[in-house]
Amino acid sequence: MKLKAIRGCLLCTAGLISSGAMAQSSVTLYGLLDTGMAYVNNQGGKSNLEMVQGVKNGNRWGLTGNEDLGGGYSTIFTLESGFNSLSGAAGASGYMFNRQAFVGLKNSHYGTITLGRQYTPWFYTVGALSGLGIGTPLTGWTGAHPGDIDAMDTGLRINNSIMYESPDMAGLSLRAMYALGGIAGNVTSGSVFSAALMYTHGPFQGAIGFNELKNSGVNISNSPTLGNYSTSAINGGYLSANSVRMFGGSARYNLNKLILGVSASNVAFLPGGQSLFKDEEVFNTAAAFAAYQTDFWVLGAGFAYTHASEANGIKDSATYKQFSIGELYSLSKRTRFYAVQAYQLATGKTLYAPPSSSAVPATPMIENAVASVGDGQNGTPSNGPKQLVFAVGIQHTF
Q1: Backbone angles phi, psi at 5, to 5 degrees
Q2: Alpha carbon 249 to chain centroid, angstroms
Q3: Residues in Cβ contact with 204 at an 8 Å cutoff, skipping those fewer than 6 apart
Q4: Assigned CATH topology for domain 37-397
Q5: What is the per-residue pLDDT across 67-117, written as a single tens digit (0 to 9) for each?
Q6: What is the CA radius of gyration of the chain?
């Protein structure tokens, strides 16, 4: 009996190996652990020394795979879940795979189509070439443009979306996405459109992109398509916008071990009938960064300047100036230590809405602008014009 069982197992294993080889399919398990400690000089008027997680990159584990269908076609998929490395808790309530969950078809000549919960073309191109992209030690936790107002960090993962990515065409590639809001009787309500172009030529890379996010209610952060829209003291007074439009670009140049880059964005909050503000509000951001890499060290620095328009009864409109620095030391290909530092100065006035636990945002009021470094302090802004952040940590990938 034991021999029969062993033979049966061997036959099953052989069958799996054979079918896998014929289909040329693969599934990869991967993940990242990022844990550290941070000091913030002002969180609501008090300093704080705390354990933190996901500072350099968000903690995650995932499965990604493909199957060769023949004729140049293949099926691809990714399932990715975030988690809290300090407590082991899931990354977001109500989601099994809160970071990514998509499936699609790929062809080297015609491009790739994917469906599900995905990052925007804006993130893959304009965001990727900003100071938060590959090759720099800067991080969205301290280095995202104030409050991640322009979603160049991971501010947008879109539900119910379909995305097309073109093949490379002499260095030029296109990505476009549309997501349905699923609102009966109004096909555009809660919808998302995003498109971007990227160009690569030798050491130069550049990208331009556009996002349009349409509200389906009175709080755009609760839209069914926007799984994690970044909210902060910087944009909190405008969450009742009927739509948000983002336009921008990034570019970088690689000089052997040195990377130089710039980015700019225009983010407009457009009011509607249910909005709690009356005038279109625009945030313009300009930023620059530099990073230097050796065999073990990566050093980087960035500066971002964000200015709000004069609207909604505000004449002295808000301005945010942010300096960020990062250092990374690699112990191996998969393990590294890092440190990040940032300082932000806010001046002028803005519409501020206190955090609300209901679906309806609190009524905004004209207040002095307060500092909120990167996107790591979105929930814990300063109660004044300045905020200083230091963090150190260790990261391991598998």
Answers
A1: -65, -40
A2: 15
A3: 251, 252, 253, 254
A4: Porin (2.40.160)
A5: 999 999 999 999 999 999 999 999 887 889 999 999 999 999 999 999 999
A6: 23
